[in-house]
Amino acid sequence: MPDYEYTALTVAGDTVAKTLQADSRKAAVAQLTSEGLTLVRLDECGGVPGEQGVALVPEAGRVPASSRESFTRQLSSLLAAGVPLATALYRLAKEAHSEVAGRVWQAIHDLIADGTSLADAMNQFPRVFPRVHIAMVRAGEKGGFLALVLEQISDFQARERDLRGRIVAALVYPAVLAVLSVGAVIFLLAFFIPRFEAMFSDFGATLPLLTRLIMGTSAWIRQWGLVVALVVACALLAIREWGASERGRRHWEALLLGLPVFGVLTARLAMTRFCRMFGTLLKAGVPLVSALDVAERSLGNQVLVDAVHEGGQHVRQGSRLADSLSQCTLLFPGSVVEIISVAEQAGRLDDELIRLADTTEKEVDRRLRMAVALAEPALLFVMAGIIGTIVIGMVLPIFALQDYIR
Predict the structure, then answer these.
(1) DSSP classification of residue 130
(2) Among 15, 99, 321, 366, which residue carries the largest CB count within 10 Å?
(3) Torsions phi, psi of 13, nearest 5?
(4) How would you class 13 by CB atoms within 10 Å of its CB: exposed for 0-12, middle for 13-18, buried for 19 or more?
């Protein structure tokens, strides 16, 4: 039984370098993966460095989202054309435009050559492939329609890229306005107001309540501002680490779904992915239960995945799809369940699911544009109110001084 030297990352992000015994490279990878480790490098002891060792995780840099999207789409096309998986991965690794992407594709190829499944190979690169994509690939491999799943993943990536681009473009002006407004408020409180304190201290009379509140806030920010900023930064880092854990991620996803506006948009986007994936798989002739298994994994939110999976158990036991999905009211409103029920009875479930995805996507896009359009004047109103309050608070004592002189 050969010995293997490995370097891996723990769940906490620490690097470990040890030696283990295994029957083969595949067995070594499986053993380390089962322990929750993310492999960085695996070498057989006594082997020639650089020949038998495989760098499993890029040492530096990130794979661009465009490279990941291109990889998924091209791999789908090659598999649909009948090219073997290992050959397709080898070609993509050689033709990668990014050096980091080329190393990742080559590492996946080497893992596949050692007998690892594509989903398990992708799972070694959590910074490259999202969990939802890996889950969908795993289901596609299991059901024998991997090329179709990869095509849908690439379509999802393109749609999300377009949506993200529209949102960023719409938020540029409000974001710049918010930064400038916050900067102006900090400047007024930290540098402008202190200049008036000496003058107001010689005033001799009681200052207006608003002025005293503003001056007290200014003094508090000058004394504790850096401490508060440091505490907030530490809290954000702690929340980020907590959100990276399985339990924290589940609580965070549940919290997002509970938000008034954002939660509804998140659920609608998830429903769009579900319906499009489900309808496309059914249209391609994939059995209902297998298509449902992949579609529920495409939701991306574990709370929704669990809810749909629980309802899907009834479908696996022979119940109607609409009756099962009606139990997940957060994801499927009553009107959507009714449409699915009618389509299921009419035998056109695939077409209706795709149509639902298209209409829901347009509705989400319209709501996002409306939310951004409303956020801009609301932000202007709030910032103008804050700055105006500060200015008025500083002017009131001057008017009082004029009345006192008269």
Answers:
(1) -
(2) 321
(3) 95, 5
(4) exposed
370 burial (CB, 10 Å; 0-12 / 13-18 / 19+) is exposed
Give the span between the Cα atoms of 5 and 21, in whole angstroms: 9
Percent of the chain at pLDDT exceeding 90: 9
**Residue ranges per structural domain of the chain:** 3-55, 65-154, 155-406
May I ask the CATH architecture of the domain 65-154?
A: Up-down Bundle (1.20)
How many Cα atoms occupy the beta-carbon half-sphere of 282 within 13 Å? 21
Report DSSP state, residue 261.
T
Split at pLDDT 50, 70, 90, the class of 60 is very low
Under the banding of pLDDT at 50, 70 and 90, the label for residue 403 is low
Question: Of the CATH numbers 3.50.50.60, 1.20.81.30, 3.40.47.10, 3.40.462.20, which one belongs to the domain with range 155-406?
Answer: 1.20.81.30
Question: Region 251-264: what's the mean pLDDT?
Answer: 83
